[in-house]
Amino acid sequence: MSKPTSIKTSEEVRDRLRILAAERGTTITELLEELAARELTEAEREQRALEAAHELGVEYTERVQQVGQDAWAKIRAHQGGAAA
């Protein structure tokens, strides 16, 4: 087990995390651990895209990569997230 640390955030974010954790019957720490574990890093997303293309028999070119990124950006935009 790693040693505890602190994260600075606004009171508004802290209060929201507290509510979300309470609604799930967990702690803020456990909520943050779950979030960090389920979200992929950019390198992990890239690796999964390579593996998926290989399984589909698709050559993973820069064009294929860009089309995929554009598609996900549109999906995030429709879900109310940032279209980065």
Quaternary class: single chain
Total strands: the figure is 0
Q: Unreliable runs, pLDDT <50, ≥5 residues?
A: none
C-alpha termini separation: 34 Å
User: pLDDT average, as an integer?
Assistant: 89
Tell me the β content: under 5%
Structural class: mainly alpha
Q: Can you give the helix content as a percent range?
A: 55-70%
> How many helix segments?
4
InterPro entries: RHH_dom-containing, Ribbon_hlx_hlx
Protein name: Ribbon-helix-helix protein CopG domain-containing protein
What does this structure look like?
The model has no long low-confidence stretch (mean pLDDT 89). This protein has 84 residues and is mostly helical. The protein has two domains: 9-39; 42-78, no CATH class. The chain is 67% helix and 0% strand. It has helices at residues 11-23, 28-38, 42-56, 62-78. The chain contains four helices and no strands. This is Ribbon-helix-helix protein CopG domain-containing protein. InterPro entries: RHH_dom-containing, Ribbon_hlx_hlx.
